[in-house]
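Q: Focus on the chain.
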Amino acid sequence: MSIQLERVNKSYGVQPVVRDFSLEIETGELFVLLGASGSGKSTLLRMIAGLTEVDSGRILLNDQDVTHLPPQKRGTGFVFQNYSLFRHMTVAQNIGFGLSIRRTRRQVHVQRVQELLELIGLPDYGDRYPSQLSGGQQQRVALARALAYQPSVLLLDEPFGALDVKIRVQLRQNLREIHKRLGLTAILVTHDQEEAFDIADRIGIIEQGELLEVGTPSELYRRPQNLFTATFLGSTNILRARRNGKSVYVGDVSIPAPPETDHLTGQPVEVLFRPEEVELSTVRPAAQTSVIGSGTVENIAFAGPILRLSVRLASGETIQALLTPGEFRERGIEPGQEVWVSLKDYHLLPTNTAAEKTPVAVTETN
């Protein structure tokens, strides 16, 4: 196990920032800690690096307790969002800075810097200065600098947040390739769910300093175990229902209960389903489908390769559905039209206090 956090806590004054946080990360894993601004994710990363003191709890790296060790003795590399390159140093000098302060032999130093320049795709940029590089190139140099002393753990604090969309996508691919090639254990923190889905082996959801849930991108998206996770990751339709016997009752309509939800029998539940799992039809579907009722198409919005439709159900709730342009043309759906709504897939969660206050929610996260 490369990284173990055991009941880590951190407060600033009377304000808790990280609360009783425990987590285990496997050797060679690229783990993403995903949360909104102010959720405590960057503070947690800085505690692992030794840049912020822990109030209580333990941090172990490669089975060594490093809770009270200084940063230089932890074997970690840190990549900041704002690059933090030395403006008066060349690219090669920036990359080799850590080697210089550790007094690495010159031949080894030069060879290592050149290897890293090759690794980040900038083999001929060693003599340039940061001001002569694009933002994406500067971030690659920052990554190379963090890797220079061959850390066992790489920590990345929203490393692509200051870059435009196209460059972010490219650098995510670069990071994944470098990670795979070196076999490093890495933690990346971000508020960008697309970024997390794109590169993570596993994702941890953090909110108000607490770890809510951990899973693969597919697990968290398809079968979240927490309502916050469900609404934080992408657009989510939520309907109040009740599970009885082998059925889930949404108002007067019943649909088959997922077999793995027997423990929810007799309870009020939330039916969660993504917009892409909604099927719309101008004629009532076959009896064996999971029909939740009829509704009226209130709005159709163009969203690039898909169309996003808002449908108000006869019961009063509004849900969202996605159609491709081809599906849209084939079905001839227009605003104001009556349609039947069925579900291709759905997931149940027990009703909690927050859900009881909001019978139906449709959440979109960019």
Remarks:
- Confidence is low (pLDDT under 50) at residues 353-366.
- The radius of gyration is 25 Å.
